[in-house]
Amino acid sequence: MTGRGTPWLILANRINETIADTLPPTLAAEAVLQSPRKVWLTEPGDVVLSAVTVPAAFLAYACEVLGFAPADVVTLTVPDATERTLAEGIRRAGLTDRLRALAAERPGMRMLPYALDRPTVRLATELGVPLHPYGPGGVSEQTLEAAYRLNTKSGFRDTAAALGIRVPDGHVCGDEDELYAAVRELSAPRHDLIVKPARSANGYGVLRLPRGPWHQVRHTLAGHLAAVLHQSSGWVVEECIAPARDVSVQAAVEPHGTQVLYDGQMRTSNAQFHGYRSPLHAPAGVREELTGMARRLGDHLAARGYLGPFSIDARLTPPGKLYAIECNLRRTGTTTLHHLARRLDPAARPGDTVWIADTRTATPAAPRDLAEGLARLRQSGLLHDPGRGRGAVLAGDPAVSGAWSYLVTAGDEAEAELLEQRLRAVLALD
């Protein structure tokens, strides 16, 4: 399962300048818990930097699945990296000389960050390690400005309107006074509203504002704003599209153009993402529209020098109407797992594999640790079978997050659903 040829310096910079204006410490700590998953991207010679220590047992398991030894990769923990960007944490921890030495031992090394921001660009320059996929030419200020702008809900709404991408009715608000005015204008008995910070992630600061008399709406909004940290990038308020499914399309801008990688349906709870199913089960016309959105946005990004991954999240109504909600110019919660699904069955053509990824909490009957969980799956015959390219993989270590993350791959939807049902029963997950 190897063969990239170029070693990577993988930065799990989950805390970065583009993801949020402000995150409470507890949410910042939660955000980095997926960092050890980056080992699924590795090949021999790679280096992983994470704000959370990669457990030895999990590293050994991942390397066994991928077909090389744990000693073939280096994992480094960056302390106190939930309080600042990972790049800043690396400097504070005095790791730059160590990284230069590791890069010198690995000719041609490239840096692969979770998200592109200015601290990461400065770190790459300082280390002399080009950013993937930009190479020695580096990243222009125009590209960075586009990345920062489009990683806001407000920036995406403006860009989507210019590109002819449908978004919900709504307004961009520079401050709380503008937000109150916009909410009052949009309040109507026929629908709820969604209020969200212009720059935020993991559902922080998002409020579904129920319809009702203005004095009740204002009271609810005031209570919400009092509980949320200051948002310097402002707010967005828009019509709540419901009922609807949360769907997305994932793509990458490459030197030869935009490549649409996959689509699927998100699993969310209280505006927070926890799982995904791909490909999207929807009429062909819906998937074509999603693909068209991605290509238009990809062309827009390419014109500004951007290279790398991005996604568009949307709401799909029962009649089949799509409303784009936001875009993410970074790797997402599904990017690594899609990469893993492809590595597990490299002979499969795109779209031939149905995969489901999710994170579930344990019941009292759940395994005590990763080893027991793997033993249960092995005994039940559910673990990934390299010969068939099908089965289950534990995508994370419950010792890190307290929850169980998994990936199942199958040849069709029915098989994938059955595998997931059996896995959740065997591991006693909710």
How would you summarize what this structure contains?
With 430 residues, this protein is of the alpha+beta class. Helix content is 35%, strand content 23%.
- Which segments are poorly predicted (pLDDT under 50) over 5 or more consecutive residues? none
- Provide mean pLDDT, rounded: 95
Helix content: 25-40%
Q: If strands are numbered along the chain, what order do they take across the biggest sheet?
A: 13-12-9-10-11-14-16-15
The overall number of domains is 3
CATH superfamily of the largest domain: ATP-grasp fold, B domain
Number of strands: 16
Instruction: Name the beta content range.
Output: 15-25%
How many DSSP H or I helices? 14
Q: Label the CATH architecture of the largest domain.
A: 2-Layer Sandwich
Summarize the topology.
Layout: E1 8-11, H1 25-31, E2 47-50, H2 56-66, E3 74-77, H3 86-92, H4 96-104, E4 110-113, H5 118-127, H6 141-150, H7 153-163, E5 170-173, H8 176-186, E6 193-197, E7 207-209, H9 214-227, E8 235-239, E9 245-254, E10 257-269, E11 272-278, H10 284-302, E12 308-316, E13 322-328, H11 335-344, E14 354-361, H12 370-380, E15 391-394, H13 398-401, E16 403-410, H14 413-427
Parallel strand pairs: 1-2, 1-4, 2-3
Antiparallel strand pairs: 5-8, 6-7, 6-8, 9-10, 9-12, 10-11, 11-14, 12-13, 14-16, 15-16
